Structures are given as structure tokens and as C-alpha cells.
Amino acid sequence: MLAARRVERVAALSEQIAADGGIALGVAMDVTDETSVGSAYDIAEAAFGPVDTIIANAGISAPGRSTEIPVAELRAVLDTNVLGVMLTAREGARRLIAAGAQGSGCGRIVLIGSITADMTGQGETMYSASKAAVAHMGRNLAREWVRQGINVNVIQPGYIRTELSGDWFDTDGGRAQIAAFPRRRLQPIGALDAPLLYLCGDESAHMTGAVFTIDDGQSL
């Protein structure tokens, strides 16, 4: 089940998954809206049965100097990156508890943070703060739900060429940033696949409250 505000994006990805032999469904969901989140979970359960794995991956940024960014943009970052993660995770936890995760131990929630949670820099203060909140949120939710059969873990990716970064890495400043990384490269988005699948699977049954940095050594 793929959910996002831009439903045309997840619909296209669902079609691609189906063409490759998988089964997927795309649905519109605004993570900042509790009603929208609940409706998306309803659709998921109607299509596939009880949800057992949740990945909270929505995120936006508001780059620029902190003295100049409009307050509306700052609020949008917090609403999506912090409140949105909480609403997505807690609605999933409610469904998991109702479905009997305490007995099965099959509940998995993975929050996607960022290495900027542990770094300082210029131009991404609110984004970095929101990702630090995600890391601490993950550990607290893991503790809160540890007896309900729900594992909560956090992945903190490094810099990847995505729509969020735009054309930054094609600018002089972006190229200089890459050159400053120990391995002088961006990591591919596929580097996250194996760790994510591990945290969603049975092999991670005894792992909860962990924060994993996956950044190809960029933060060293």
C-alpha cells in the first residue's frame, strides 16, 4: 500500500510494481491530516487485511537562512516531518494492537529520519531539528509499545539524489559538499533497501528502539 498527497505518483508506482509481478495499491493520504491518515489505513485493510508493517517516510524541507524563512514554511516542515510521522505511526500502532500484535509479535514500524539530526550546518535548521525529533520519537514509541508486540526503529539516511534535494548537487556548492564526504560520492537510494527489509521482517524480532545511520560514511 503506497500513500502520498500526490496520488498520481503512487498510482504510477503501483502500476510499475504490478508489471513486475507484485501487488500494490496507491491511495491519497495527507500525513498532517488525521482523518486522511485513518481513511488510508481503512483502504489498506479493506484491500489487504490487517496492517503489520508501517514505514513513515513523508518529509519536506525549507532551505534557507533561519532569519529569512517564512513562518508558514517552518510550520509546514514541523507538520509534515514531526506531526505527520506521529500520526502515521500511532494510527498504525492502533491497528496493530487491535489486530493482536501483542500475541503475534509481528508489528513493525520504521521511521525515516536523516543524518542531519546529528549534524550542524547552514540552511536546514528546521529540517535537521525535525529529524532529531524523529529519532527521539522512535525510541520513545518503541518504549511505549514494547509490550504490545510492536517494534519501532529509525533509519537515518545520508545524502541521496532525490526530488527533495532538487538540483543542489549539480551546483558548485553541491559538488563541493560531495567532495567533502570521505568517499566523495552520494549514496544510491538502493543502499537503504536491505536494512529496511530487515527491520520489516521476522529477523528483526528482537530489535526495537534502534537508530541506524546509513550514509556511506558521509557523517564521519
Automatic annotation (TrEMBL):
Alphabetic keyword roster: Oxidoreductase
Family recorded in the similarity comment: Belongs to the short-chain dehydrogenases/reductases (SDR) family.
PANTHER family noted in UniProt: 3-OXOACYL-[ACYL-CARRIER-PROTEIN] REDUCTASE, SHORT-CHAIN DEHYDROGENASES/REDUCTASES FAMILY MEMBER
Official protein name in the record: 3-oxoacyl-ACP reductase
